[in-house]
Amino acid sequence: MITDQTSPEDFSNKRRGNHNHIKGWGVDMNLENDPTYPIKKRNNDEHKGYSWERPDQQDETVEILHSVERPNLPAVYGTSRPPSGLSGFIRRIAYKFSESTYMRWLPLMIADRIDMIEGFVDDLSRGHIPNVPKEIGLKSEWKYNKEKLLIRTAVGILITGAVLLLLFSSDKKTRRIRT
User: Fold this and answer.
1) N or C of the chain: less Cβ packing under 10 Å?
2) In angstroms, rounded to a whole number, what is the distance separating the alpha carbons of residues 122 and 152?
3) Predicted confidence band of residue 62 (pLDDT cuts 50, 70, 90)
4) How far apart are the first and last CA of the chain?
5) For residue range 115-132, what is the model confidence (pLDDT) as tens digits?
6) Cis peptide before 74 (omega within 30 of 0)
7) pLDDT greater than 80 at residue 163
8) Is the dihedral of CA 31, 35, 37, 42 positive or negative?
């Protein structure tokens, strides 16, 4: 089991340099000009680093993907949808890259779309017919955003029609050539 080996001393500022040249630096140092007042109850001990007790490590019962920037697992994590199928394969590849690259985020976005299709197919295979208009929020779109919904629908119909026209028109041309 991997544990977090950090301590509050790891997060303290030992350099104590002069950072006045940085705009906004130390804005919260003056207690009378605290931007979080009155929401946050100020505790000056928090500048020493975090002082909470780390929770017990959650048992690893499913595959957990985590950042390459973080060598260990957080103490608690979600396990409701472990990676599986084609979307899981794409996610495993994406998690090999740094969080600051497109090779991380673009594949994750594609994996989300593929996961949606996999979920739809899974529902159908179990005999459940999903209510797609309700799940994509069509009722609220119609209520609060009619204009954009109509535009998106019209564009979708035009694109679908154009694709079908290209598919069927090229099929007719090949039939004419053969005869």
Assistant:
1) C
2) 27
3) confident
4) 71
5) 999 999 999 999 999 898
6) no
7) yes
8) negative
- Residue 176 has a pLDDT of 57
Evaluate whether 66 touches 73 at the Cβ level (below 8 Å): yes
Structure tokens at 103: 């090779």
Q: Exposed (0-12), middle (13-18) or buried (19+): which is 27, by Cβ within 10 Å?
A: exposed
How far apart, in Å, are the Cα atoms of 51 and each of 8, 9, 10, 13, 71?
6, 10, 12, 15, 22
DSSP state of 76: S
List of residues 6+ apart from 73 with CB closer than 8 A: 2, 57, 58, 60, 64, 66
> What residue type is assigned to position 113 of the chain?
R
Q: Are 149 and 141 in contact (CB under 8 A)?
A: yes
Three-class DSSP category at 91: helix
pLDDT, mean over the chain:
79
**Which DSSP state fits 33?**
G
Burial of 10 (0-12, 13-18, 19+ CB in 10 A): exposed
What pLDDT, on a 0 to 100 scale, did the predictor assign at position 2? 42
Higher pLDDT, 47 or 142: 142
